[in-house]
Specification:
9 helices; Helix Hairpins; 4-stranded antiparallel sheet; 6-stranded antiparallel sheet; N-terminal domain of peptidoglycan hydrolase CwlO-containing protein; flat; alpha+beta; 2 domains; about 15% strand; single chain; about 375 residues
């Protein structure tokens, strides 16, 4: 753990110091030039092997970040389970106390019954002076025996409940052990990734400074994408609602069981293009998948639309690339942590329900269930 932190601090220090020195040098030499654009220019001339190493470095950096996030989530979950275990331990202690109290009451009743004996109870009943006393004593004896039986049942229920609580506690403890093991593996993997990253950096020799500058710049741009998507998502969700849609936006045909609707790729892109508050976003509909590119950000995302509530679609991203670098799953999830690209089709489908969606070459096809009421 200590070794990992030391390596991580060293890497952060190296990256930060190098970036500051290079940035300062760039400002002194180029004035108002764009350092990242110059780096992109230089990258065009590097070898395939160097480009692959650069991709590996970028992926490793993202994996380390994803594992740090996963580690924090595991620690929170372990804390939550620990709190549940404490609650169960308290509940079990109360059940045991209640069990002992009931057992003491039962012991006292049994001792009283043994001292008096069955004959003494019968004598008390038969010695009644009148019918009213006789009936009252019979009822009292019956209540006593019934209450004793109920107490026995309560004890049995309490014991069963206690057993279930203990089983639940055991399962929780097993879960904690699994989470702790998962956390250990995560830490080991992280250490290995950091060491591998350090080894890659060392192997780059003379070009190390150049690659560090590129990766740092790329990381800064990637961090800005989260805010960018939060702003874009709000506008994207309203493009159907606010847009002056052409009459043939949703082309429909009626079958025996449902309505079939289709939206062409060209029509979809035109709707986005006509919204001045959205950046240039180009959607490409391909069999089984949708590719979205944002040229302004050198970003490509690939995924599909999924149905949320029968009227709303969400763009579910599965893979992507940023400046040609592959994006890991955790990085993609981070981009959409605050908001998603959601499309409200209610203005097009009305009260009807979208049952399914399928992507073909150049168009989307929706199966819509009519809602006549």
């Amino acid at each position: 753990m200590v070794k990992m932190r030391e390596i991580k601090r060293l890497l952060i220090f190296c990256f930060t110091a190098t970036f500051i020195l290079i940035l300062f040098s760039s400002i002194m030499v180029t004035g108002e030039g764009d350092p990242f654009a110059e780096i992109q220019e230089k990258l065009a001339g590097i070898s395939i092997e160097e480009r692959e190493i650069l991709k590996k470095l970028f992926v490793l950096a993202r994996e380390v970040e994803d594992m740090e996030r996963a580690e924090a989530e595991i620690e929170q979950e372990i804390e939550s389970v620990n709190q549940e275990v404490k609650y169960l331990e308290n509940a079990i202690a109360l059940e045991e106390m209640d069990y002992e109290n009931k057992l003491d009451v039962l012991r006292q009743i049994l001792r009283s019954y043994q001292r008096r004996g069955a004959g003494s109870y019968l004598e008390i009943i038969l010695s009644s002076d009148n019918l009213a006393t006789f009936l009252r004593r019979i009822n009292t004896f019956r209540d006593l025996t019934r209450n004793t039986g109920e107490l026995l049942l309560l004890l049995e229920d309490s014991r069963e409940k206690l057993s279930k609580e203990k089983k639940k506690l055991t399962e929780k403890l097993v879960l904690i052990e699994e989470k702790q093991e998962e956390l250990r593996e995560s830490l080991v993997n992280k250490l290995q990734l950091v060491e591998a990253q350090e080894a890659y950096l060392a192997s780059l020799a003379g070009e190390r400074v150049f690659y560090q500058e590129y990766l740092t710049s790329l990381q800064n741009l990637l961090d800005e994408l989260g805010t960018f998507f939060t702003e874009v998502a709000g506008e994207f969700s309203r493009i159907i609602e606010e847009g002056n849609l052409p009459s043939d936006t949703l082309k429909t045909s009626i079958t025996l069981y449902h309505i079939k609707g289709s939206i062409e790729e060209k029509t979809f892109n035109n709707i986005i293009k006509e919204n001045p508050r959205l950046p240039e976003m180009i959607f490409s509909f391909q069999p089984g998948k949708i590719e979205m590119s944002i040229p302004q950000k050198n970003l490509t995302l690939i995924g599909d639309f999924v149905i949320l509530d029968g009227k709303t679609l969400k763009f579910q991203v599965e893979e992507g690339a940023f400046y040609g670098m592959p994006l890991e799953k955790g990085t993609i999830e981070g981009l959409f942590r605050e908001s998603h690209l959601v499309l409200d089709l209610k203005p097009l489908v009305g009260k009807n329900i979208i049952q399914s969606i399928e992507v073909f070459d150049g168009y989307l096809e929706l199966k819509i269930i009519p809602n006549l009421f």
